[in-house]
Structure formats: C-alpha cells, structure tokens
Amino acid sequence: MKKFPVSISPTEIRQQLNQTDSYSRRFAETCLRGLLGFRDVPGTLSNRENVFPPVPWEFEKLRQRIHDKISPHIYGWYDEAASAAGGSTSSNVAAFSRYRFVPRYLHPDKTFRYATPVTLSSRELGVTRLASPTPIFASPYGSASLYGGLSDEISLAQGVTDADVVHSLGTLTRYSLEADRQAVVTNRYYFRPGLRAPSGPAPFTMFQLYLTEEDDINRSLIERAKRAGVSVILFTIDAGAGHGGAPMMDLAADFTYCSGIAGNLLHDPVFHEKCYRRRGCVGTRSPKLLTYASRRLGLSVKKLADACDPAAAFDYGRTIQFGGMGRQNSVRNSRSPAYPWSVEHIARLAHSRKNISPAHPAFTHRRGLPLAVKGVMSVEDARHCQDSGADAVYVSNHGGRFVFNSIAPIEVLPEIRKAVKKKDRNFGVWLDSGIRSAADVLIAYARGAEFVGIGRPVIYACVDKGRGGVRQILQGLLYTIRDQARLCGLQSATEIHAKTDIVRPA
Ligand SMILES: Cc1cc2nc3c(=O)[nH]c(=O)nc-3n(C[C@H](O)[C@H](O)[C@H](O)COP(=O)(O)O)c2cc1C
Questions:
Q1: Per-residue pLDDT tens for 36-78?
Q2: Which residues contact residue 230 at a Cβ distance below 8 angstroms, ignoring those fewer than 6 apart?
Q3: Contact predicate 373/58, CB 8 Å
Q4: What is the mean pLDDT of residues 7-32?
C-alpha cells in the first residue's frame, strides 16, 4: 500500500519540540514519532519507553487490546461485566454523559494552571494543605504486577510519576511499600534536568491501606508508610473479601493470589512474629526482618530463618488480609472488640506524631498523616467518617466492582459534599469511578470533587505498554484537560467550583 508521504524538516521538529510545557512537548513527540514510524525523535530523551507506539486514547479500543492479550482467569478480576454484575461499572461511566459544557471562547486569559491545591482537615490534625502538580491522581490498584501483559508495580509507579501525577501505593503488592515509594522518588523522568530540580520537594504520594485481622500488623503498616514519606493514608472501606461474587466464577477468575499480593506483609517484621506464633513458620530468611520476631519470641534469628516456609507464610498472610478487609466499622467505643477496625482508631493511628508500633523503635519521623476514607457512597457514612476524625472522604464505588446496581459516585457526590462542607469547608472531597476522559475529570470537579482518581485507563495502559503506556495515557489526559478547560474559559480545574453554570445536566 502506498504510504502517505510525510516530510518533516529538522527545523520543524525542533520547533514542535520547543514547547514551553512538558505535556505539549510530549504531545508533539508522540505525534512526531507516529509520523516517523515510532523511531525515536532526534532531540528527545532516548530511552525504551519513549519509542513505544501510543496507547489508544479511546478507552474501548484500549480495553479491547488488553482483553485480547490477557488470560480470562486474570481479566476476570477487573472485567467490567463480570466484576460488576448489574452494570455498576458501565453505569458509573454512563452517568458522565448526563452533563454538557457551555463553551466560553472569548475569555481573554488563555493560561491554565495544572497545579492543584489539595486540602484536608480534621479536629485532631487541623488543616493539611498539599500541592499536587496536576488535578488528577492514580487510584490505588492492588496486584498490579499480576494483571498480565507488561503490567508491573514499579512501571506503574514510574509511569504515573513521569506524567507528574500523584501516585497511590497499594497494600496488596508484590514489592514493599518502601520499594514502590523509592521507585517514585528516584524516577529518572521525574528528575530529568530542566523538568524538575533533583533537590525539589519529595513527590506527593499516598498509601492505600487494607486492614488485616491483626491490629499490630496494621499499626506497623501505617508506621512504615509514615517513615517512607507518604503524605496521605487512603483507608479503603468498600472491599469485602469476596471480590464481586458469582459472576466472576463464570470466568474461573484466578483467586489463588500468588505472593504478588503479599509483598507488604512479607516485608513486615510484625508479620513474621505473628506468623511464627500462629503457624510455626516465617516467610523470610532476612535477618533484618527477623530481628524483631527473634527478640519477642526469645529465639535466635538462625532458628527462625530455619523455619522459613514461604508457601505456609503466604497462606497465613492471605488469611489475615482477606479476614481483615471486611471488618471496617463505625464503632466509637474503644473497649469494643471491633474498635481496632473502626474509622476512629485508624484516624488516630494515622494522625499520631508518636511511634505507634514497637517493631520500629528508631524514631525517624514526627509526622501525623491525614486520613482519606475511600469508598464512601452515602451521606451517612461520610458524616460518620468526618465525626470519627477522618480528614477527607474519597467518593468511589471501587469502579463498580462490589455492589450490584450501585448508584454512580458522580451522582451522590454533591449531596456528600454539601453535608461535610457544612461542618468544615477544608474537609476533603475526592472522587473516582468511571473517569474515562478529560471531560469526565472536569465534570467531576464541576460536581464538587477536589481531587480526581484515574482507575482502569491507567491499569489497562500499563498492561498494554508498561511504564511508557501509563505516561502516555496520563499525559494525553492532562493535555486534553487543559485544552477543554481553556475552551470553557477556565484557568484551572478548581476554578470550575465557582463557575457552576459551565457544566449543566444534558
Ligand atoms: C484491577 C483493579 C484493582 C484494584 N485494586 C484496588 C486496591 O487494591 N485498593 C483499592 O482501594 N482500590 C482498588 N481498585 C479500585 C480503584 O482504586 C478505583 O477505585 C477504581 O478502579 C475506579 O473505577 P474505574 O476504574 O472504573 O474508573 C482496583 C480497581 C481495579 C480495576
């Protein structure tokens, strides 16, 4: 077939790449690479991720690409139909089509600020003000190294940071939260000369917490997140251990959950002590990780290392993890046996400036972290979180993965916002679920969200093209957010909170 003739002069390439901001540069790079047949473009950073063909911007095309590559046993975890019987995922997405923009072309100021202030607040911690480089964050994805294709936790963390997007470290991971956080901090792109000073502030990162059945392991996880330098704890309350029920059986979804979900437990000193007490084994031979158990149990590190049985330890880890995930509650009485899994208890642990776990005696931080509760879908739960000391609610139905025929988060957002803002205007209100485009992000802001999480598009891009795919999908989204916002006369995403007439019901 005859190729369309394209000739680009070196001067034109230089001009295209000489854009003032990273998203425009990236956009030009991607287009030029497309025209040049995905060879590296002269004058740009040369590395493997840069020469990946772009991932499709259109979500359905992206979904199709990964669907054809992944085993149904794995895709069964996140399949939009199987993991969301009753159409919860598709109704999350469809809900955004009920809103329309009113363009404002004659606005004289054509600038756009990506930087977005993020405010959280509680009685205990006061107001926390954070600055995100962009108005979006990557929603937390557990098991990211198990999804198939090129998906891998470290690539995910790096691709997200490449795009200047706030990353959420998960609990259910292959590596430890310390290693995943390190991938964010030492990211090559992030410290690329000219883009960001290496001496700049450490990137704003979040840690998503799933509780286990053991309070002292939960404490240890929170203490480790503080030491690793994360800025916010996301406490997920909407996941039972069941993962969506019967429809996933049709796909024989793989529930063996190999050790790719237990990295945080297997790197936790308290876990090995508990594991030895309950199962007579440990899950590591590392003296560093066994010293605490050795002291507590009065056994030598060598004796413990000899009792290393990774399969049995993983089995114990899986049991306490899935046993703990459905225990979250609203108890306020600290003597209740259910209290260790209450929002109030977790808020206190997150806020504490003191050491909350004896397994980490060397005191290296004086940080209390704000707590955002993820999975809030009702005014009642939102009020409860606020009264229990949380700093933000993160409205989400887990991408429609758990409750059949769930109402869409974008629909309940305004009433939740109204209820919590009445008490405290700095209390945070965030959202994810169903965001597939730049327009969806702006609609979420227009409905009252103050920070917006991107879910499946990022995971799918990672499966398709690894780190480069994650970077491309997010940069495409950010580029388009700016484009669309400017067509509506906005200079930032948050400005839409004040201009309520820009987005209207269709
Ligand atoms: C494959 C997959 C894994 C996920 N893992 C987690 C997790 O470990 N913890 C969590 O809080 N949310 C998890 N979520 C939910 C996301 O954080 C987010 O709420 C959801 O993907 C948003 O919906 P959307 O992808 O349809 O936009 C996961 C979602 C998917 C699709």
A1: 666 655 555 444 445 566 788 889 999 999 988 888 888 888 8
A2: 169, 177, 181, 205, 206, 207, 369
A3: no
A4: 71
Yes or no: domain 59-196+223-239+326-505 corresponds to CATH 3.20.20.70? yes
- Residue showing tokens 């937390």: 140
Those residues whose C-beta lies under 8 Å from the C-beta of residue 3, and which sit 6 or more positions away, are none
Q: pLDDT for 259-290, tens place per residue? A: 788 999 999 999 999 999 999 999 999 999 99
Take residue 290 and report the two structure tokens written for it: 């066994």
- Give the other-Cβ count within 10 Å of 406's Cβ: 22
> How far does residue 89's CA lie from ligand 1's centre (Å)?
11
Tokens of 323: 């046993």
User: Of 168, 178, 241, whose CA–CA distance to 208 is shortest?
Assistant: 168
DSSP string, 82-146: GGGTTTHHHHHHHHGGGEEE---TT-S----B--EEEEEEETTTEEEEEEESSSEEEPP-TTTTS
Ligand 1 atom, smallest distance to 168 CA:
17
Tokens describing residue 420:
């919590």
Q: How many CB atoms lie within 10 A of CB 379?
A: 15
pLDDT tens across 348-401, in order?
Answer: 999 999 999 999 987 777 789 999 999 999 999 999 999 999 999 999 999 988
SS3 69: helix
pLDDT tops 60 at residue 197: no
Q: Where are the domains of the chain?
A: 10-44, 59-196+223-239+326-505, 253-325
**Which of 350, 442, 433, 426 has its CA nearest to residue 388?**
350
Protein residues whose CB sits closer than 6 Å to any atom of ligand 1: 77-78, 89, 92, 139-142, 170, 172, 208, 236, 374, 396, 398-399, 432-435, 455-456, 459
> If you search the block for the tokens 């025929």, which residue do you land on?
405
